[in-house]
């Protein structure tokens, strides 16, 4: 049965998906290819490869982790042009599978898998990053609706999303973790404004999203009122596992194969330091892939990764930083300035490398999670945990 | 080919762990330090005669168990965690060299006795800085004489059989030297790692028999197995450091809190956990490759060794540091791991050598 699934996946990918490095779209570049991405996701769904482990009742395939692993293995060498759906399916989607009402699951999950609706995640705010429980966006009940006001930041895909999973404060008189709720918000609703956020590379891979008296219905609540932090923990766990185990493209500019070829092209492979750096990069890349594989095997065997997803996330970020250092070493003074597209790609990747240690939860937060939940060390003191939120100082607010 | 342990491998890990706890706890290593014995002969007898550990990679036709590389890795991980002093690594590498050579007489004569633990054998290899040996006279099975020095050699003082690579007029040939041969001087050195017995081996016109077969291929295979073995031991020992230090950080209180609450301590332990997980995953891959994909074994074992040798050495230093003053005392176990980590990192090829070899294999 597994062999059958593997054969089917292999044949379908070969016939329908672009191979990595083929020069076709990487599936993450945004608005211009959204129609293509939706079409590809629909094909994926029709072929029976979307929502592999999700229940059939919600459009999934009702299969096991074994098939999920096979799919990951077989699809590794392809650039699936459906990246716009990655966040929605792996984060809000998986969270709805766990916590959504029957009505929510039936309404939202199948269109996500069929490539009809794109989702984003709205957690971080200008004053609430690592300490996301200090968020200030408010949701105030008004009859059968909630009214949202506030600002979110670092939102991937907001510019082409149809829905978002948003965290908002529903009770300021409770301590910070106890007055938050999670909602489904229609990104096309009046009062939602999306603006691109330009980062250090000069690109705008993220957005800022403003909510100005945006109304959402009472049944948009995910989980219980004021229990949004629990829902957020579920989603963040899915996020870390998704990021930590998504694997990296062998053709990305900082991948081992790319840097080895770059070093050969620049005549740098006779330098012992460069050779050792590249060999170490190979070893470290390999280990990150193997650890992701080990986590998948363990969950298939019934041992869920839990907080060890943070190990995968931390390891992936550090690998990115290390690869950036190796690339810089390979380039030497050629890093300082460039005029070719090929050099632009690797140089921009070097500049972008530190971002992965911030995005999706900083490495410092991952270390806290690993220390506390994997190794059982005492929690950070958390001096603000018992104080009503409306008496706290948050973000960069000055003390009054 | 799954990375996670099979039920049999888990059972082997459990039985070796129990054996270490019952028969060779860290207090035994302290007895060896006081007595000056290189290892406990009774423990070695049980490791070989009862547990069959020296024969795990020797086929049944030569008196071994033929269980394979993954089983070996699992057992060595547990032995490494307990810093069990024994000539196991020396014997494994000698057996590997014999298996890869084409000398039927030597295989038949020696392998069953190595598997049974009656013969301690070792390969006299070290880095280029550790000296070299030259052979004169002798062709094929003829007796030659060897001269030169090689140091440090695993269990060189205790071995009754030494396999000595030497420069001959036919290039590098591996010679069989009897422990009682004339002109052979073995001097036990002061090992940094208390669990490892190392010696300087001096040969001066020492009679030896040339072994038939491809010496370079046999030595390369032994290097690969050494990488797997040292990575396995290091993984076990590193996990012991991680567990010991996490436990201490949970109970030791300073400034009104368990020290694990402080990020300076917590984050260092989180990094240790991360490095262990990565190294362990690479080790499982190498162990599986050893049995199922021999063509991939050399690179996979290098990867595991490169990652774990450095990660363990760092973890052992952090173990000392995070325990504070108590961690630097002779009475505390941290220094036993610290020295084992220093030694494991460099024995039979340190990180630079490993990376150079890996770079060659990867076509860089």
Percent range of helical residues of chain B: 40-55%
Which two chains touch over the largest interface?
A-B, 42 and 40 residues
Output the CATH class name of the largest domain in chain B: Mainly Alpha
Low-confidence stretches of chain B: none
* Helix-strand category of chain B: alpha+beta
The H/E string of chain B reads HHHHHHEEEEEEEHEEHHHH
Largest sheet of chain B: 7 strands, mixed
- First and last CA, distance of chain B: 28 Å
Using only CA atoms, what is the Rg of chain B? 21 Å
Overall geometric form of chain A: globular
Characterization of the model:
The complex is a heterodimer of chains A (400) and B (364). With 400 residues, chain A is of the alpha+beta class. Chain A has three domains: 2-117, Butyryl-Coa Dehydrogenase, subunit A, domain 1; 120-228, Butyryl-CoA Dehydrogenase, subunit A, domain 2; 247-361, no CATH class. Chain A has eleven helices and eight strands. In chain A, the strands form two sheets. A four-stranded mixed β-sheet of chain A has the order 1-4-5-8. A four-stranded antiparallel β-sheet of chain A has the order 2-3-7-6, with no helix packed on it. In chain A, helix 8 packs antiparallel against helix 9. The radius of gyration of chain A is 22 Å and the shape is globular. Chain B has 364 residues and is of the alpha+beta class. Chain B folds into three domains: 7-116, Orthogonal Bundle (Butyryl-Coa Dehydrogenase, subunit A, domain 1), CATH 1.10.540.10; 121-213, Butyryl-CoA Dehydrogenase, subunit A, domain 2; 217-361, Butyryl-CoA Dehydrogenase, subunit A, domain 3 (Up-down Bundle). Helices cover 54% and strands 16% of the residues of chain B. In chain B, the strands form two sheets. In chain B, strands 1, 2, 3, 4, 5, 6 and 7 form a seven-stranded mixed β-sheet that branches. The longest helix of chain B is centred in the middle third of the chain and has 37 residues, at 215-251. Chain B is globular and about 75 Å long. The mean pLDDT of chain B is 96. Chains A and B meet through helix 8, helix 9 and helix 11 of A and helix 7, strand 9, helix 8, helix 9 and helix 11 of B.
């Amino acid at each position: 049965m597994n062999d059958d699934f593997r054969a089917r996946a292999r044949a379908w990918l070969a016939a329908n998906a672009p191979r990595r490095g083929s020069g076709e779209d990487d599936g993450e570049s945004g608005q211009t290819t959204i129609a293509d991405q939706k079409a590809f996701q629909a094909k994926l769904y029709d072929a029976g490869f979307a929502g592999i482990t999700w229940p059939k009742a919600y459009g999934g395939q009702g299969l096991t982790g074994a098939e999920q692993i096979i799919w990951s293995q077989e699809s590794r060498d392809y650039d699936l042009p459906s990246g716009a759906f990655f966040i929605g399916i792996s984060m809000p989607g998986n969270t709805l599978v766990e916590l959504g009402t029957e009505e929510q699951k039936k309404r939202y999950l199948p269109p996500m898998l069929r490539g009809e609706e794109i989702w984003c995640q709205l957690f971080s705010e200008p004053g609430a990053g690592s300490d996301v429980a200090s968020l200030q966006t408010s949701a105030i009940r008004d009859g059968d609706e909630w009214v949202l006001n506030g600002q979110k930041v670092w939102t991937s895909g907001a510019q082409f999303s149809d829905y978002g999973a948003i965290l908002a404060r529903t009770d300021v008189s409770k301590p910070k973790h106890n007055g938050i709720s999670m909602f489904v918000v229609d990104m096309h609703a009046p009062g939602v404004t999306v603006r691109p956020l330009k980062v250090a590379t000069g690109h705008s891979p993220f957005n800022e999203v403003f909510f100005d008296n945006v109304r959402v219905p009472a049944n948009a609540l995910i989980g219980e009122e004021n229990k949004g932090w629990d829902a957020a923990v579920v989603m963040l766990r899915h996020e870390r596992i998704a990021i930590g185990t998504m694997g990296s493209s062998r053709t990305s500019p900082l991948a081992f194969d790319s840097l080895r070829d770059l070093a050969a092209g620049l005549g740098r492979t006779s330098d012992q330091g460069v050779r050792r750096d590249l060999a170490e990069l190979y070893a470290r890349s390999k280990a990150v892939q193997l650890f992701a594989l080990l986590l998948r095997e363990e969950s298939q065997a019934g041992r869920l990764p839990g907080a060890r997803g943070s190990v995968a996330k931390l390891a992936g970020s550090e690998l990115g930083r290390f690869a950036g250092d190796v690339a810089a070493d390979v380039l030497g003074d050629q890093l300082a300035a460039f005029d070719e597209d090929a050099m632009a790609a690797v140089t921009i990747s070097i500049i972008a490398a530190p971002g992965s240690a911030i995005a999706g939860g900083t490495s410092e937060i991952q270390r806290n999670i690993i220390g506390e939940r994997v190794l059982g060390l005492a929690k950070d003191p958390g001096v603000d945990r018992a104080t009503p939120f409306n008496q706290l100082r948050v973000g960069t607010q000055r003390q009054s | 080919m799954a990375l996670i342990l099979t039920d049999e491998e888990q059972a082997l890990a459990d039985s070796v762990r129990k054996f270490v706890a019952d028969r060779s706890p860290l207090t035994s290593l302290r007895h060896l330090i006081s007595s000056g014995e290189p290892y406990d002969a009774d423990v070695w007898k049980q490791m070989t005669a009862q547990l069959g550990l020296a024969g795990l990679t020797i086929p049944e036709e030569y008196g071994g168990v033929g269980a394979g590389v993954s089983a070996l890795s699992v057992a060595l991980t547990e032995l490494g965690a307990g810093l069990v002093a024994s000539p196991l690594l020396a014997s494994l590498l000698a057996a590997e060299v014999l298996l890869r050579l084409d000398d039927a007489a030597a295989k038949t004569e020696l392998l069953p006795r190595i598997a049974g633990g009656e013969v301690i054998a070792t390969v006299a290899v070290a880095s280029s800085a550790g000296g070299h040996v030259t052979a004169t006279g002798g062709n094929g099975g003829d007796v030659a004489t060897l001269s030169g020095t090689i140091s440090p050699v695993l269990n060189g003082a205790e071995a009754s059989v030494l396999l000595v690579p030497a420069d001959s007029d036919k290039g590098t040939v591996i010679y069989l030297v009897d422990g009682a041969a004339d002109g052979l001087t073995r001097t036990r050195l002061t090992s940094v790692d208390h669990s490892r017995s190392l010696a300087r081996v001096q040969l001066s016109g020492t009679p030896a028999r040339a072994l038939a077969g491809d010496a370079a291929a046999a030595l390369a295979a032994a290097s690969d197995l050494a990488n797997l073995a040292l990575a396995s031991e290091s993984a076990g020992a590193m996990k012991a450091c991680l567990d010991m230090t996490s436990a201490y950080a949970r109970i030791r209180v300073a400034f009104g809190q368990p020290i694990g609450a402080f990020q300076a301590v917590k984050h260092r332990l989180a990094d240790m956990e991360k490095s262990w997980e990565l190294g362990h995953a690479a080790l499982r891959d190498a162990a599986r490759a050893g049995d199922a994909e021999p063509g991939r074994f050399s690179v996979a074992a290098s990867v595991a060794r490169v990652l774990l040798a450095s990660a363990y050495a760092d973890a052992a230093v952090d173990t000392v540091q995070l325990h504070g003053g108590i961690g630097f005392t002779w009475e505390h176990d941290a220094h036993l791991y610290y020295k084992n980590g220093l030694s494991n990192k460099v024995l039979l090829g340190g990180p630079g050598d490993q990376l150079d070899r890996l770079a060659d294999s990867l076509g860089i």
